[in-house]
From TrEMBL:
Annotated source species: Gymnodinialimonas phycosphaerae
Assigned protein family: Belongs to the peptidase S26 family.
Official protein name in the record: Signal peptidase I
Keywords (A to Z) from UniProt: Hydrolase, Membrane, Protease, Transmembrane, Transmembrane helix
The EC number(s) this enzyme carries: 3.4.21.89
Regions that span the bilayer: 15-35
Active site (record annotation): 39, 99
């Protein structure tokens, strides 16, 4: 009986230590993150799996699970660069979001007729071939994509207008447009406060981001202490509703760098 109890205790200790080590790794180094929605298409697709680099911007209370780190502000902190794809804790509802940093402290940000303006100047846009995907349920939540060529029947080709957007400093990335005149296509001019950032999704008509205030369910400005880390590379990707559906794996996205 004593030997049996000793074996149980050793198993418990092993599990506890494994959880402690995993918690330390997740807090200090890399946090796993699944892409649940299409707000960052075509940079990130529903079902992409990545590790968030927790070392990139330092640490805050939000770096620990349940925001339990026992300190205020940031330690070992550094600011993201314009164009970084970041994961952050929503300022009010506690959900983890992933978006692209568009505005830095002091920047003036505005969208006019669907074109991003920074500090009074429109960014350069270069048209690309449309982004195409199958009109079908995607991911565990079964999201059906919105299409610029709607209506599209199930199994049809869902298209979105695509362009390359060039930010000041030369950072380029793809953005998508579903329709003109969406509610985020024309905004007031925002001035980014000190210690905050302005973020947007690359799928501009399908993203809840800093263009929309928290009072109506948006994100607003993101405080620096809410940054969890930088997304650098897709590790794994699956187009299906379950990871075990190997026939839905997107092998061309494995270990793909995030631009």
């Amino acid at each position: 009986m004593a030997e049996s109890e000793g074996g149980i205790m050793e198993t418990v200790k092993t599990v506890v230590w494994a959880l402690v080590i995993a918690g330390i790794f997740r807090t200090l180094f890399f946090q796993p993150f699944w892409i649940p929605s299409g707000s960052m298409k075509d940079t990130l697709l529903i079902g992409d799996f990545l590790f968030v680099n927790k070392m990139a911007y330092g640490y805050s209370r939000h770096s620990c699970p349940f925001s339990m780190c026992p300190f205020e502000g940031r330690i070992f902190g550094s600011d993201p660069e314009r164009g970084d794809v970041v994961v952050f804790r929503h300022p009010t509802n506690g959900t983890d979001f992933i978006k692209r940093v568009i505005g830095l402290p002091g920047d003036r940000v505005q969208v006019i007729d669907g074109v991003l303006h920074l500090n009074g100047e429109p960014v350069r846009l270069t048209p690309q071939e449309p982004f195409e995907e199958i009109a079908e349920a995607q991911g565990p939540q079964g999201h059906v994509p919105r299409c610029s060529n709607a209506p599209v029947g199930a199994g049809g080709i869902c298209a979105k207008e695509r362009a390359t957007e060039e930010l000041p400093g030369g950072v380029t990335h793809s953005i998508l447009n579903i329709q003109d005149g969406s509610r985020g296509d024309n905004t007031p001019e925002f001035v980014v406060p000190e210690g905050h950032f302005f973020v947007m999704g690359d799928n501009r008509d399908n993203s809840i981001d800093s263009r929309f205030p928290q009072s109506i369910g948006g994100v607003g400005f993101v405080p620096a202490e809410n940054l969890l880390g930088r997304a650098d590379r897709v590790i794994f990707s699956s187009a299906g509703q379950r990871m075990i559906y190997f026939w839905t794996w997107r092998s061309d996205r494995f270990f793909r760098a995030i631009d």
